[in-house]
Amino acid sequence: MKKFFDRLFNSSFWALAIKEVTQILRNKQLIFLLIFPPTVQLLIFGFALSPEVHFLKLGIVDYANSQTSRELVTALTENRIFLAQDYLFSEQLLGEQVRQGQLTAGLVIPPDFDRQLSQNQAADIQVLIDGVDANTAGIASGYMNQIVTQFSRSLNPNPVASRIEPEVSFLYNPGLISSWFFVPGVLGTVLTLTSSLVSSATVVREKDTGTLEQLLMTPAQAWEILLAKIVPLFVLLMGDVLLALTVAKLVFNIPFRGNLALFLLVAALYVCVGISIGILLATVSKNQQQVVLSSFFLNLPLIQTSGAIAPIESMPTFFRYLSLLNPLRHFVVIVRGFLLKGIGIVEVWPHVAALAMFTIVLLTISSLKFRRQLS
């Protein structure tokens, strides 16, 4: 063991690695990119991204003007999903305000509303929803149907004999907290952006400053030069992983139910994928401006088709199959499984195998491109 460390400390690789660490520590901008943006992005996306909607502007035309109709309006607005924006006198004016975007939804209660209920007849109400934002419209429609159904049952507590009442249990996220879904995905997204940008910036900096030619004159092998660049970045990016986990736990109270050592092993694979992408981009770019533009051109499709923000199931069939070639998709599945479900590598071994394959292929391609550039 002593001989091994003696050889390591006296090798060209160790000298180059010390040089890389020194350059990284002197580069305040790089340290800033490693710490500040990942933290801020996790906080912003964790709080801002949510499928839930609140305070939808609701216009009301209440022809019945009775106690029951007012109770229905109260049921719709008491959870602050709908906000009673205005009481109007005609359906035409209500439809016009929905058309102009002043209201998200409109409710029309007919004059014979109470009479139909008292005679055990179906009491029809009219609901108008602005469908320009399809996602909000679908959620608003679901909320409206659910609230009206519960209100109807409160008026007639005697259930119909043939009615089937399902008992639903939500597993792994019983509170249906949206940040528990988004933050693990954002963790993978942030790691993708940071690892590719930082690794590409460190390599392309050698071109901009003219030190790449000096590296060619050093008595070191190409693999030693490449490894000396990868190892310090790998250690720093693994620190980013721990930082992201800390933010997820302290700020969003996201549980960690899996094995930390196995999770860090999988994260290490994905960090290598991100570094490989960055080195590959640096070898095909001439300066930092080109590498930044290329990075966003590549990373945005990776993020959009990964399932980190939008579910894979909501994508067209072509993109669902195309996403299998996306390493971020596999990493996001693994992160959510480890954090929320407490599963191990056995349960997600296809995704781990895919991630390992991407790591080997991308590291091989990027190292060959880098060695070819050095030669």
Notes on the structure:
With 375 residues, the protein is mainly alpha-helical. The protein has two domains: 16-49 and 174-374, no CATH class; 56-155, abc type-2 transporter like domain (abc type-2 transporter like fold, 3-Layer(aba) Sandwich). The protein contains 15 helices and four strands. It has helices spanning 2-9, 12-26, 28-48, 67-77, 91-99, 113-118, 134-155, 178-209, 212-217, 222-252, 260-284, 288-304, 317-322, 327-341, 349-374, and strands at residues 56-62, 82-87, 105-109, 126-129. It has a four-stranded mixed sheet, sandwiched between helices. α4 (67-77) links the parallel β1 and β2 (82-87). α10 (222-252) packs across α11 (260-284) and α11 packs across α12 (288-304). The longest helix is centred in the middle third of the chain and has 32 residues, at 178-209.
Average pLDDT works out at 80
Task: Count the beta strands.
Answer: 4
What's the gyration radius in Å?
28 Å
How do the strands of the widest beta sheet line up side by side? 2-1-3-4
Report, as a whole number of angstroms, the end-to-end distance: 34 Å
Q: Which percent band covers the strand fraction?
A: 5-15%
Largest sheet: 4 strands, mixed
The secondary structure category is mainly alpha
| Percent of residues in helices | 55-70%
Question: How many domain modules?
Answer: 2
SSE order: HHHEHEHEHEHHHHHHHHH
Tally of individual helices: 15
Shape: elongated
Spans of 5+ residues with little confidence (pLDDT < 50)? 160-165
